[in-house]
Amino acid sequence: MKWACSAWVAGMFASLLAPGGQAVAAEPDGRIVFVSTAGGDAQIYSVRPDGSALKALTTGPGENTQPAWSPDGRRIAFTSMRDGNMEIYVMDADGGHVRRLTEHPLADNAPEWSPDGRTIAFRSYRDRHANVYLIDVDSGTLQRLTDTPIDKGPPHWAPDGQRVVHTEIGTLSSSHVMLVSRRDPQRRDLTSKVSGKSKNVQPSWSPDGLRLAYAAMGSKGGEIHVMDIAADRTDRLTQDTFDDSTPIWSPDGTRIAFVSNREGPRIGRASGDIYVMNTDGSNPVNVTQHPAHDDSPAWSADGRSLYFMSLRDGVSRLYVQRVGESTPMPITSAQGHVLMYCVSPPAAASTSARAGEQVANGTIPSNGTNTLWR
């Protein structure tokens, strides 16, 4: 499974996230990295899942955002404005040994590590339009993966490390999810055939790399779709008049967490909650159930907890909701807004596999037998 990063998607931070935009650390104590405005400018911090051992990893000058864990949890790639424009940097997990990876007068941002940890995909405006590039972390060798005069969203690696998906702005305010391979420059439009007039956004790979979930946002609300890429078949998992968005696969591939405002009023913009459903769309369960807006879900490595951001304290804070507990626990303080956070890979490479085995043998209830997310 790809250990992606979640950003607050509400409009209040749109200006920060426009150029770029899950979360537990690979260190033994399971640290989380997040971006906060607690000190003024956006900076990167790390913290344990219980809220202890807070540490500032960057201090400026300039904003530092979009942290992304390397697959082994030893390094963090991030976007920084410290030299006057957006560039990609790499630092150790404790904030040391900072190294600038890209250098161009125009913005480079939205880094994501390849599954083997050798390459970082990122978005660059060096062509005057946003295109996806790859850079070898050790040598600095660049490869341009896309070459079209159309703005694109952040890149997302497939688990096989050979393919990348990204959103692309279409006509009439639509957007599409595009697939491109490192070895084949021919791009494939995955979503236009099914939901061509929608804003197809937030692509999320299944752990096995065979399916892709995404949100199709239209004038009548947003819906979650899942595409079987090899079969070229797309299934619509939700169907209502509300906004369903931000799909995230569980580590064992049996469930999808998402954001929905379906329990709010039908007039006006209702606040969202975090839901969990089976991968066929059945058995949706409201996990957070709070009047304030909850957003940006991410699974823990064992699939027994969900991280999310919430405005329930007046500022955006990071919370964790554990299976069997009715109340989420705040991880970050109420000082400053948390803009985004990032879950590292498991401390051991076999953690996700062990979680899947536990589901199979009944140690961790799943798909309707869970006492909380049933």
Q: Nutshell version of this structure?
A:
By secondary structure, this protein is mainly β. It has a single domain, classed as Neuraminidase.
How would you summarize the topology of this molecule?
Layout: E1 5-7, H1 14-17, E2 32-36, E3 43-47, E4 55-56, E5 64-69, E6 75-80, E7 87-92, E8 99-100, E9 108-113, E10 119-124, E11 131-136, E12 142-144, E13 156-157, E14 163-169, E15 175-181, E16 188-189, H2 192-195, E17 199-205, E18 211-218, E19 221-228, E20 233-236, E21 244-249, E22 255-260, E23 273-278, E24 285-286, E25 294-299, E26 305-310, E27 317-322, E28 329-330, E29 338-342, H3 351-361
Antiparallel strand pairs: 1-29, 2-3, 2-29, 3-4, 5-6, 6-7, 7-8, 9-10, 10-11, 11-12, 13-14, 14-15, 15-16, 17-18, 18-19, 19-20, 21-22, 22-23, 23-24, 25-26, 26-27, 27-28
Give a written overview of the molecule.
The protein has a single domain (5-361), classed as Neuraminidase (6 Propeller), CATH 2.120.10. It has helices spanning 14-17, 192-195, 351-361; strands at residues 5-7, 32-36, 43-47, 55-56, 64-69, 75-80, 87-92, 99-100, 108-113, 119-124, 131-136, 142-144, 156-157, 163-169, 175-181, 188-189, 199-205, 211-218, 221-228, 233-236, 244-249, 255-260, 273-278, 285-286, 294-299, 305-310, 317-322, 329-330, 338-342. The two termini are 23 Å apart. Residues 9-29 and 348-371 have low confidence and may be disordered. The radius of gyration is 19 Å and the shape is globular. Helices cover 5% and strands 39% of the residues. By secondary structure, the protein is mainly beta. The chain has a 5-stranded antiparallel beta sheet, with no helix packed on it. Strands 5-6-7-8 form a 4-stranded antiparallel beta sheet, with no helix packed on it. A 4-stranded antiparallel beta sheet has the order 9-10-11-12, with no helix packed on it.
